[in-house]
């Protein structure tokens, strides 16, 4: 019998199983290489899962033909047999991850009534260093998750953690595959309401110890399911001589976890093309009874279908207030919708989207002036105020409405820039006009991202360097704010990512590339890195938590984040894991529509206006917030992003337009179009993509490396390219015309080149 098994985690780190004769089982520890020998860095003889009823120490280990370790054992308690268990432990030499996948079998359930917090998946890092609170604590680096707001309320997004010990110059990352771990739902444990991923000090036995992993706040008393219960997670250890900053640790952790993003997607049974959903959504948004009302002066859009939002109604009632969305002018809904609506009505006009655009513009021009004129003695949500004006300004510029642009620019000078300077670019949750200072509690630091992006757009439009300076000030503040203080509305971080990308391209300053990677990683912390086993009717992988700590994905933020991130990828070599996230988003956001959900989730007869929220284990009320008219505009954005000029119906072909946010630029609108295509299938194939019939492709080529080019064909409006599993290519279609809807003849073409990235 082998008494020792070794799995290499990295070039200088490894995981070692050793057999203990007294325990008749194996435990593991982590080691790092020294100059002449390996040094143990963690406590010896650790189990795969911790707890009185767990303590999973392998009794048998066998080395498989592919190099994985096959582990198994039997768990007993004082009364005898509890369950058998088996699994695999495998090392991925390319990524440094060691992956654990354990499955229980046996009795249907047992009563979990320990006074210990269990089950837990942790690495015992050893005893607390001497003077831990006086020296060691200042120089360690740890990143806990899920994200939190206001140093208190956690979300339910990123299931991973990071720890670096500056004494030993050694670190550990962990990732937890929540898609596989449905035992929390079956046991009635509300997951991230009682668990977190991170570092814990324990003082029960002096001198205390440090542990890292999936830790619970307290013991549970519940019936714990056995048959089929899985524990699936990864450990990645590393050595590093120079201590990381918290910012670089966030980047390293998120980028390492991109290796866990699955390629396989599961489209809804009633899924269709995003362009079809956009057409049907425009038709339904014209429903006068469900989506509009009249205040006696003009027709007004309302925020929710039929004015129904149980979440807000109950919230207002708890404050002794009432809200009537049926008679509430939804100017925010109109302003959130108008930019993507104006874009799609320009690029792919139909009678429905053209009529809707005109009707929404009419409402905005009535209600918007009232918004701008009646500001004094008023409290505003800060992100809403800045974001709505930015979207209004962009849409007005696209519509060549100089008067509205000028009016909004006056508000920028009168309100937005003074507010930013007053608060040092650390924006409050709410502010008051005319004082232009924080009102009430709460901060919302990622607003600096929306502000920076708006300032950059104004700089490009007007040429005034003051706007560029404002953008630079704001984005640099985000780089230096505490790493756990940036999470509120997820799409604000996506705008920060855009701003950093634009500043890097504009100035050439490499610091903005560093800021870009950091803010992208922060935004990706708000992704749902799992499908929720408690909701088998839909998938949430690749969606974004709407706002920390709302505990659910929301359609508006999902598409905002995906589209804004995609817009920054032109000329970049994107990580395949990021592209798989965006493909999960492309497919799974269709589940937000009643059309793709079981009948019990329907709130109205309108099937193509999305639900605001999908329930999760922590917040299980799907549709509780209502059917969102304000977020429905992102249906048009999704169609432009994933199903516009170049289209594919293959769920494994993630095809993204990289120009969605550049169409105000006439040269971009009528010129070269850029697309990123990632293939996530398991076998290579010739992939076909349609070119929209209102456009003509004059050339198809890619990039600056002809030695790596590969041929493509365009035949009868279809583009064909041979793609390998995991391959990413850039497609540029040059000489595109007809963006105003003019029907142009397609020309058959062949022999143009496509560069493999």
What does this entry look like structurally?
The chain is α+β, with helices and mostly antiparallel strands and 757 residues long. Among the domains are: 257 residues, Beta-galactosidase, Chain A, domain 5, CATH 2.70.98; 103 residues. Helices cover 31% and strands 25% of the residues. It has an eight-stranded antiparallel beta sheet. A hairpin with a 4-residue loop joins strand 2 and strand 3. Helix 11 runs parallel beside helix 13 and helix 12 crosses helix 13. The chain is globular.
Question: Main attributes?
Answer:
33 strands, 8-stranded antiparallel beta sheet, disordered C terminus, 18 helices, alpha+beta, 757 residues, Beta-galactosidase, Chain A, domain 5, 5-stranded antiparallel beta sheet
Sheet of most strands: 8 strands, antiparallel
Task: Give the amount of beta strand, in percent.
Answer: 15-25%
Instruction: State Rg.
Output: 27 Å
CATH topology of one domain: Beta-galactosidase, Chain A, domain 5
Secondary structure elements and pairings:
Layout: E1 4-8, E2 13-20, E3 25-33, E4 38-40, E5 60-63, E6 69-77, E7 80-91, E8 98-106, E9 109-112, E10 121-127, H1 132-139, E11 141-143, E12 148-149, E13 153-154, E14 160-165, E15 170-176, H2 183-186, E16 195-202, E17 209-216, E18 222-225, E19 230-239, H3 246-257, H4 274-285, H5 288-291, E20 292-294, E21 299-301, H6 310-318, H7 331-347, H8 351-373, E22 378-381, H9 382-398, H10 402-422, E23 430-433, E24 437-438, H11 447-462, H12 465-480, H13 490-507, H14 511-524, H15 555-566, H16 576-588, H17 633-642, E25 646-647, E26 653-657, H18 666-670, E27 673-679, E28 685-691, E29 699-701, E30 709-715, E31 718-723, E32 728-734, E33 749-755
Antiparallel strand pairs: 1-2, 2-3, 3-4, 5-6, 6-7, 7-8, 8-19, 9-18, 10-17, 11-14, 12-13, 14-15, 15-19, 16-17, 20-21, 22-23, 23-24, 25-28, 26-27, 27-32, 28-31, 29-32, 30-31, 30-33
Helix pairs in contact: 3-14, 4-17, 7-8, 7-9, 7-17, 9-10, 9-11, 11-12, 11-13, 12-13, 13-14, 13-15, 15-17
């Amino acid at each position: 019998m082998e008494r020792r098994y070794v799995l290499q985690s990295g070039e200088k780190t490894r995981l070692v199983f050793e057999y203990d004769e007294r325990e008749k089982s194996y435990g593991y520890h982590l080691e790092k290489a020294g100059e002449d020998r390996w040094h143990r860095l963690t406590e010896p003889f650790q189990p795969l899962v911790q707890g009185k009823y767990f303590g999973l120490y392998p009794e048998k280990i066998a080395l498989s033909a592919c190099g994985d370790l096959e582990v198994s054992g039997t768990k007993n308690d004082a009364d005898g047999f509890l369950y058998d268990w088996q699994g695999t432990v495998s090392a991925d030499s390319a990524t440094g991850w060691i992956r654990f996948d354990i499955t229980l079998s046996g009795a249907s359930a047992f009563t979990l009534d320990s006074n210990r917090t269990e089950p837990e998946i942790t690495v015992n890092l050893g005893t607390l260093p001497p003077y831990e609170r006086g020296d060691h604590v200042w120089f360690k680096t740890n990143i806990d998750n899920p994200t939190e707001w206001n140093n208190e309320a956690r979300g339910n997004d990123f299931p991973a953690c990071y720890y670096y010990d500056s004494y030993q110059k050694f670190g550990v990352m962990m990732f937890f595959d929540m898609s596989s771990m449905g035992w929390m739902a079956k046991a009635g444990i509300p997951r991230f309401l009682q668990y977190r991923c991170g570092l814990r000090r324990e003082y029960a036995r002096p001198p205390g110890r440090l542990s890292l992993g999936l830790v619970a706040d307290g013991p549970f008393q519940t019936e714990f399911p056995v048959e089929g219960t899985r524990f699936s997670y990864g450990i990645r250890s590393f050595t590093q001589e120079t201590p990381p900053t918290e910012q670089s640790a966030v980047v390293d952790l998120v980028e390492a976890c991109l290796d866990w993003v699955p390629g396989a997607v599961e489209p809804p049974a009633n899924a269709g093309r995003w362009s079809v959903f956009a057409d049907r959504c425009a038709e339904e948004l014209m429903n006068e009874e469900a989506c509009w009302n009249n205040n006696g002066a003009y027709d007004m859009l309302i925020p929710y279908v039929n004015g129904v939002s149980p979440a807000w109604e109950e919230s207002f009632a708890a404050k002794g207030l009432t809200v009537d969305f049926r008679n509430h002018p939804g100017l925010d809904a109109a302003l959130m919708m108008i930019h993507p609506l104006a874009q799609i009505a320009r690029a792919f006009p139909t009678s429905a989207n053209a009529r809707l655009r005109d009707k929404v513009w009419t409402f905005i021009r009535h209600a918007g002036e009232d918004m701008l004129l009646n500001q004094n003695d008023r409290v505003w949500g800060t992100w809403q105020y800045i974001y709505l004006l930015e979207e209004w300004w962009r849409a007005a510029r696209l519509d060549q409405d100089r008067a509205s642009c000028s009016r909004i620019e006056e508000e920028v000078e009168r309100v937005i820039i003074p507010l930013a300077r007053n608060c040092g670019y650390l924006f409050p949750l709410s502010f008051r006009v005319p004082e232009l200072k924080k009102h009430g509690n709460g901060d919302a630091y990622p607003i600096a991202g929306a502000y920076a992006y708006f300032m950059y757009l104004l700089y490009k439009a007007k040429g005034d360097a003051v706007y560029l300076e404002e953008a630079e000030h704001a984005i640099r503040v985000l780089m230096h704010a505490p790493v756990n203080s940036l999470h509120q509305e997820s799409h604000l971080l996506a705008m920060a990512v855009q701003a950093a990308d634009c500043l890097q391209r504009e100035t050439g300053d490499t610091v903005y590339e560093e800021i870009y990677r950091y803010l992208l990683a922060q935004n990706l912390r708000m992704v749902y890195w799992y499908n929720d086993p408690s909701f088998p009717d839909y998938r949430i992988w690749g969606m974004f938590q709407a706002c920390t700590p709302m505990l659910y994905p929301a359609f508006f933020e999902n598409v905002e984040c995906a589209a804004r991130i995609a817009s920054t990828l032109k000329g970049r070599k994107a990580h395949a894991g990021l592209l798989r996230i965006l493909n999960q988003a492309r497919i799974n956001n269709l589940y937000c529509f009643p059309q793709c959900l079981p009948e019990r989730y329907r709130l109205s007869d309108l099937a193509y206006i999305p639900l605001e929220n999908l329930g999760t284990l922590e917040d299980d009320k799907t549709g509780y917030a209502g059917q969102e008219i304000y977020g429905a505009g992102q249906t048009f954005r999704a169609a432009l992003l994933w199903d516009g000029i170049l289209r594919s119906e293959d769920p494994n072909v993630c095809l993204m337009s990289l120009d969605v946010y550049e169409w105000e630029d006439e040269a971009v609108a009528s010129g070269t179009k850029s697309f990123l295509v990632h293939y996530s299938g398991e076998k290579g194939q010739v992939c076909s993509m349609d070119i929209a019939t209102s456009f003509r492709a004059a050339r198809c080529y890619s990039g600056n490396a002809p030695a790596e080019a590969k041929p493509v064909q365009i035949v009868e409006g279809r583009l064909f390219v041979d793609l390998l599993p995991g391959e990413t290519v850039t497609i540029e279609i040059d000489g595109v015309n007809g963006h105003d809807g003019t029907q142009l003849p397609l020309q058959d073409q062949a022999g143009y080149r496509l560069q493999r990235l």
